[in-house]
């Protein structure tokens, strides 16, 4: 089968005889909408890996403190190498000593969409990606803003992840989103995943049985536009 392009950096960092992480060779189910996943990763430091499907790969950022629902809080998001789409189903433990050694949990997943008149590719090049998430946990408008690289002497490309103001924002509740810390794919805690116990993760990306859109990720539950506001008002009234 044809390997996805742009994954050379991903593969070069990993020894697939030692890690259970996918090498990008599993068949991924087609989707009419772009998918995203956030993986909670207890590596040397706990962080949250945001992955947005684009051009057949996952554009990826390591969000050091995790996403915040407070629009005043900007969270550092370090750009990392593109990941294969089958990575979105990975939940388990990367062996100690290997790249990214530590436990990985599927913390959120669903669909995403660029917002505005420009394409996602254009906005990424420009360094300001506005988008909406339709996840199990994260919903509504977000923005990724690239920082000027001369702020940091390393070769890292740093971005800020910021919640946009809408019905899903929670002013003053910096880490409200992070309180829910079980896997959305298996219901397991990090400890259960690390121990290899409990239910297996239900796939979202890979072809096969049991693959289905996560509950609560349809457009009406994630939209924050004017029509959705009207929809909510109508439901209340
Ligand atoms: Mn990571």
Can you describe what's shown?
The protein has helices at 8-12, 120-126, 190-195, 219-222, 226-236; strands spanning 34-42, 46-54, 57-63, 74-83, 92-94, 102-114, 128-135, 139-146, 158-163. With 237 residues, it is an alpha+beta fold. It has one domain (8-236). It has an 8-stranded antiparallel beta barrel. The longest helix has 11 residues, at 226-236. It is globular, with a radius of gyration of 17 Å. Bound molecules: manganese (II) ion. The site of manganese (II) ion (MN) has 6 residues, from β2.
Describe what is shown at a glance:
The protein has 237 residues and is α+β, with helices and mostly antiparallel strands. 14% of the residues lie in helices and 31% in strands.
Question: Which properties best describe this structure?
Answer:
237 residues; alpha+beta; 9 strands; binds manganese (II) ion
Detail the topology: elements first, then pairings.
Blueprint: H1 8-12, E1 34-42, E2 46-54, E3 57-63, E4 74-83, E5 92-94, E6 102-114, H2 120-126, E7 128-135, E8 139-146, E9 158-163, H3 190-195, H4 219-222, H5 226-236
Antiparallel strand pairs: 1-2, 1-6, 2-3, 3-4, 4-9, 5-6, 6-7, 7-8, 8-9
Manganese (II) ion binds next to strand 2.
Mean of the pLDDT scores? 88
Q: Over the alpha carbons, how many angstroms does the gyration radius reach?
A: 17 Å
Q: Class by helix and strand content?
A: alpha+beta
Number of domains: 1
Strand content: 25-35%
Care to count the β-strands? Answer: 9
Instruction: Give the overall shape, derived from the CA principal axes.
Output: globular
Q: How far do the termini sit from each other?
A: 53 Å
Structure annotation, total helices: 5
Listing every helix as H and every strand as E from the N terminus to the C terminus, the arrangement reads HEEEEEEHEEEHHH
Spans with pLDDT under 50 lasting ≥5 residues?
Answer: 222-237
For the biggest β-sheet, the strand order reads 1-2-3-4-9-8-7-6
Bound small molecules, deduplicated: manganese (II) ion
Portion of residues within helices: 10-25%
Largest sheet: 8 strands, antiparallel, barrel
């Amino acid at each position: 089968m044809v390997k996805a392009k742009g994954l050379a950096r991903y593969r070069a960092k990993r020894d697939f005889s030692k890690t259970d992480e996918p090498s990008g060779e599993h068949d991924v189910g087609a989707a009419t909408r772009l998918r995203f996943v956030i993986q909670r990763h207890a590596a040397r430091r706990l962080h949250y890996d945001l992955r947005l499907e684009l051009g057949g790969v996952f554009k990826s950022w390591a969000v050091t403190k995790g996403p915040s629902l407070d629009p005043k809080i900007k969270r550092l998001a370090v750009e990392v190498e593109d990941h294969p789409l089958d990575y979105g189903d990975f939940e388990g433990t990367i062996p100690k000593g290997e790249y990214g050694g530590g436990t990985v949990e599927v913390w959120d997943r669903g669909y995403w969409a660029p917002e505005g008149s420009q394409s996602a590719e254009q906005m990424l090049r420009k360094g300001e990606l506005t988008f909406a998430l339709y996840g199990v946990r994260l919903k509504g408008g977000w923005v990724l803003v690239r920082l000027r690289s001369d702020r940091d002497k390393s070769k890292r490309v740093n971005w800020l992840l910021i919640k946009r103001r809408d019905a899903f924002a929670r002013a003053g509740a910096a880490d409200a989103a992070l309180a829910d810390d079980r896997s959305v794919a298996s219901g397991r805690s990090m400890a259960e995943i690390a121990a290899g116990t409990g239910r297996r993760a239900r796939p979202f990306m890979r072809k096969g049985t049991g693959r289905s859109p996560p509950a609560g990720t349809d457009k009406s539950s994630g939209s924050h536009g004017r029509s959705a506001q009207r929809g909510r008002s109508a439901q209340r009234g």
